[in-house]
Design goal:
The chain is an alpha+beta fold. The protein is built from 14 helices and 25 strands. The strands form five sheets. Strands 1, 10, 11, 12, 22, 23, 24 and 25 form an eight-stranded mixed beta sheet that branches. A seven-stranded mixed beta sheet has the order 15-16-17-18-20-19-21. Strands 4, 5, 7, 8 and 9 form a five-stranded antiparallel beta sheet that branches. A hairpin with a 3-residue loop joins β22 and β23. α3 packs parallel to α6.
Length: 558
Amino acid sequence: MTRSFSMTRRTTLAGLSTAAALAALPAFAASGPAREMFRHGVASGDPDATSVVLWTRVSGVESLDVEWELATDPAFGKLIQTGRFATGPERDFTVKVLAEGLRPGGHYYYRFRANGVNSPVGRTRTLPVGKLERLGIALASCSNYAFGYFNAYDAIARDPVIDFVLHTGDYIYEYGAAGWGSETARKLGRVHEPANEIVSLADYRTRHAQYKTDAGAQAMHAAKPLLACWDDHESANNPWVGGAQNHQPETEGDWQDRRNASIQAYFEWMPVREPGPGRTRAQFWRTYVFGDLATLSTLETRHTARALQVDYEPYRKSIASFADAARMEREALGAPGRTMLAPELEADLSAAWQNSKRLNQPWRLIGNPMPIARTRVPDVVSLGVIPDPAKQAKPLPAAQDLAWKGKWNLPFYPDTWDGYEWARERLYSQARTAGVNDLVFLTGDSHSFWANRLADAAGQPMGVELGTAGITSPGDFVESGFDPVTAAKLDQAFAEHNPEVVWTDNLHQGYVRLVLTHGQGRASFVVVNTITSPVYSTRVISRWSLRKSADELLMERV
């Protein structure tokens, strides 16, 4: 049975939460002078047990000392910390404070003041220590401003069981105003700024600023602390250590300069802490420990170790048999040494898993920017899911692509973990060495919902994968031109064809709600009914239970 409710993002959070303190939080949208001074809202994130990052941005000033306050009540009658932060054009007028010396598992309210004007109030929390009964995480990904309103963000802000938001990447998109989603953007008045594809530091700053004007984004950031990792579009489509698919040096300059600009803007505009001693901003991964209940490790898979992606195009004429396809997979996709994770990240993962086992935690989570389940394309032509493109006068390019991959049973995307078999097996082997085969991968990137059971190349269970659809980015089958009925049939064909894929859905936008206790996990796939209007409703289209058996992690639909 599904439950739905309608709302508008002008509605305050009060009355929608069961927690009295959360219900007391003022409306997120600023008004009057605050709307001009703090037009990008407030945010918090990257917490540990005794500290958390507080963020805002001031507008319409040259340079300024911004005051900040932290309290235990929304009326700020019980101030516990105050301070000042100097900002200016050198950091694009952003303000980022690391509030330290806090109580583990504490709930706090914060605000900023500039030129006598108060910002909206935000609510945040630190990580718990010791006994923890439950944890609620919202999994979000792929928020493309051009495609519509960030209603799912707004729904997350209002979700009373969510403690933290995990965003696994594609928080912004780099395309220009005439690029992907431009037709929808013009209809909705959400055309990308600047109009060009973003390349320079000024470009990336402008794009981040635009995304943080969305009311849903402001509501979510004010209500919940953010745990973030990035994927590709924070810089450019499909980057690796030496370049990116969507970077042309002859017209867009040096790739390192562009990457550095994107990373600088990200650290200015996101509530993330600066790197520790001996680390760089590019080494953007984290370990979050939630008492005796769970450890979450986020991955960096783009800028520190990724080998060049394999392009299928050169093989389309050379593959004429299953033997040819197997050889390509073995020699290209599965070539030894095709790395994904940096050695420092691998070391941090091992340490996190060992500590989790020491704490006797039941849950080990991975914030994963892209799908890891083995996902091959079924022979959708022979199955009758789509007509044979070779017999059509004007076939869809996507149909031609699926037909070719399905004919040879090839992985869907070589840009995901499927294109890095050696690296995937290396990760699984590392987990087994740490005594871990019950990982919960929380995944973005694909614009589809997934419930997957994972195994290594030898068939040994490695855990499960919960994948989220886009906040606004459309599912690949629908976006590629397939009608909704065919798109649903493609989902079913993929689930039936792939042993690791239990269920998938590319028809919706939304988020995944994961609630963990010591005895079980509950995953709910929450969808919004529209992204083209700020008035929307939500419903749960699928629910799953996670529980431990003697030797593996079980996942069942409920």
